[in-house]
Structure formats: structure tokens, C-alpha cells
Amino acid sequence: MAAAKKTTSGTGVRSASRSRGAAKSAAPAIIEFDKDQELHAYREMLLIRRFEEKAGQLYGMGLIGGFCHLYIGQEAVVVGMQMAKVDGDQMITGYRDHGHMLAMDLDPKGVMAELTGRRGGLSKGKGGSMHMFSKEKHFYGGHGIVGAQVSLGTGLGFANQYRENGNVAMAFFGDGASNQGQVYESFNMAQLWKLPVVYVIENNKYGMGTSVERSSATTDLSQRGASFGIPGKQVDGMDVRAVMAASEKALEHCRSGKGPYILEMVTYRYRGHSMSDPAKYRSKDEVQKMRTEHDPIEQVRKRLIDAGWASEDDLKSIDKDIRAKVAEAAEFAQTDPEPDASELYTDILL
User: Fold this and answer.
1) Which pTM value belongs to this model?
2) Mean pLDDT across the chain
3) Which of 180, 178, 156 is nearest to 167 (CA)?
4) What's 48's DSSP letter?
């Protein structure tokens, strides 16, 4: 396999441990961020949070139809992994995909316009919330079928190995999808052929409306690949530093030809499974406790202020800029024309 690319994913943010050799068997549980990394993580996670809040608002106004699954609370997972990856590494996920696209540097206007079914959407207004792609940014969906992205992500890993490009595919799926049969078929194939795939289980505790304790016989999902000999690690998915540390180790494992790796990101979603879910299966106190004690954005905010790297006014200014960007995206998503009727017959494979 060709040597890994040395450029980052366009953020200019890089971990000091990358140069120290992330391939060591014992990676640190947390990487201590410098000022630039903290600010980058803060901006990226806050963009996802504000975007999803606006999407929820537009859905409530009837401007977004169909299914809409928000990522609020889980922002540290995709941002931490984005900070660890290199150019050319791919992401593929399920239907809770808006945050992944924003982390992959896709234009918020294109994402929001797709939600409202407009011409300027990433899938020309024909895909909606669950079906968006960008080959240019190496984002391969957005998939509505539970677990389907796992086998497709394994195929991306096979393509990387075949092309000897040194890249790694990151396949995201939830705790509910982790019980799917096709997931284990993919694990077997990936380990058999030593494919460069990181399987990222975003365990937000509730697959639709059933807790993981009630739906899974074993709840340490990081060990789901044990019977195939695939290593795994359970990660605090609410701490972006822990996510980046674990991601660097996993990506280096795959990039060095050792085969797949499983990361269980223990995280939490604040909203229901989708916008139509009232989430009555958990208490308000449980949600509030997570927001108060473990919120991924508030953790970074506190560290920035405590370290003297940003003031309250500085952070308010960042929030103001992000809100303006999201408002611009929402305006575009409401004023951009709908697709022409002729688009019904384009991009169809016979």
C-alpha cells in the first residue's frame, strides 16, 4: 500500500501526536489541544449545532418535508474524526448525515437547499435529508436503509486498497444498525482482505426509541468485531479530544495495512430519533443532565475561556458569524427555485 498522504483535510489543524507516531499500540485517551485546535473544533461543532437548530425550525414551519434526523449533541464525533483524517479519506453514513457533510466542508447553502428540495441542493433537490453526496469532498452519503452504508463503506475500503492510494474509508452507523447482519458480513470481508476501513459506531444510546440495553445482548459495541479479530475501542464521543486521539490510532492502524478497526463513540442525541419522534421513552432530566454535564461544545467553550484563549465576547462574535452563515443558508434554501420537471428523468441508471 502506498504511503499515506501528509496533508490534512484542508483545516490547517493537526495533532502534535501525529508527528510522534500514532501507530503506537497505546494511544493517549485524550489529546491536549492547542489554541488553534480548540477554536477550530468550537467553530465546526457550533456550525453543526446552529445548522441543525435552523433545520428543525424550518421543518416545524413545513418548509422541510419527509424525514429529518438531527445531529444535535453528537457533534464531537464527526468533528474529531475530521480533524484526524487526511485528504482523500472518505466518509459514508446513514440518514443522520447533515453534520457529516458540514464537517467535510460542504457548503451549508447546498445542504440546506437539499433539505427544502431546491435546485441548488447537493443532489439537485431530489435527494432530501437522507440522500446527499459529494465525490469532490469524498462524502459518499447519506443512506436511508439501516446499515447499508456499512457494506458500501467496505467497498470504498476495497477501492482504496486496489488503487494503493493510502486512504481510509470511515463508515458511520448507529447502535441500532450494529445488530444488522450485513454489518458482520462486512466485518468478515474487511478483516479477511485487510481492508482500510474504520467502522464508527455512533452509540447515542437509543436506536430509534429503544435503549441499547434493551435491544443488544452485549452493550460494549467496540468488541463487536472480536470474533473476526478486529480491534476496537470505546471512546468518549462527547469529548472532541478523545475522539481525535482514538481516530488517529484507528486511521493509522488501517493505513499501515493491518486491516479494519472499530470505534464505538459513546455519545447522545438531545432530540428524538427524527423530527417526528417525541422521545417519550426517556426523561427530560436525563437529557438535561447530559446537556449540563457533557455537552461537547460547552466543554470546548470552557477550556477556551479557562486558558485565556478566548473571551466571552470573542465566542459571542464567533456565534454571531455562524448564525449569519446559517441564516444565509436558510434564506437561499427558501428562495432558490425548485428543480425543473425535466430533472425527474436525469441521473437515472437503466
Assistant:
1) 0.89
2) 90
3) 156
4) H
